[in-house]
Amino acid sequence: QVRLVESGGGLVQAGGSLRLSCGASGRTFSIYAMGWFRQAPEKEREFVAVINYSGGTTYYTDSVKGRFTISRDNAKNTVHLQMNSLKPEDTAVYYCAANPFPRTGTSDYWGQGTQVTVSS
């Protein structure tokens, strides 16, 4: 069992940056791939980024490539999403996920979500 708690969301102007963090409980954190998803109002939840268990491999959805960076610290049971050059269309609730399945938009474990709002 993995419990996930996100933090770091907020309101930022277009072009600004935010860093999301996700703390995980459980001694098995390091065996899971970790990911971030987001859900905008009246839209389905979509995949944003994933990082493998060791942190050596990452993958991003096309709309955030070059702007977002996912990273993890297995010693601290945390995963981060650095978001730069934010756009109004990045506005959404962002969810941390453990053992995610990007193609189906599902995951074994979810956090409660953190709101990111980008003003124009």
Quick summary of this structure?
The chain is mostly beta strands and 120 residues long.
Search tags:
11 strands; mainly beta; globular; 120 residues; 52% strand; single chain
What does this entry look like structurally?
The chain is mainly beta and 120 residues long. 0% of the residues lie in helices and 52% in strands. It has strands at residues 4-7, 10-13, 18-24, 34-39, 46-51, 58-60, 68-73, 78-83, 92-101, 106-110, 114-119. Strands 2, 4, 5, 6, 9, 10 and 11 form a seven-stranded mixed beta sheet that branches. It has a four-stranded antiparallel beta sheet with strand order 1-3-8-7, with no helix packed on it. The relative contact order is 0.32. The mean pLDDT is 95.
Helix content: under 10%
CA(first)-CA(last) distance:
40 Å
Mean pLDDT: 95
- Report the principal-axis shape: globular
Instruction: Detail the poorly predicted runs.
Output: none
Q: Would you list the SSEs in sequence order as H and E?
A: EEEEEEEEEEE
* Number of β-strand runs: 11
From the structure provided, what is the oligomeric state, counting identical versus distinct chains?
single chain
How would a crystallographer describe the biggest sheet? 7 strands, mixed
Structural class: mainly beta
In DSSP terms (H or I, runs of 4 or more residues), the helix count works out at 0
Radius of gyration: 13 Å
Q: What portion of residues belong to β-strands?
A: over 45%
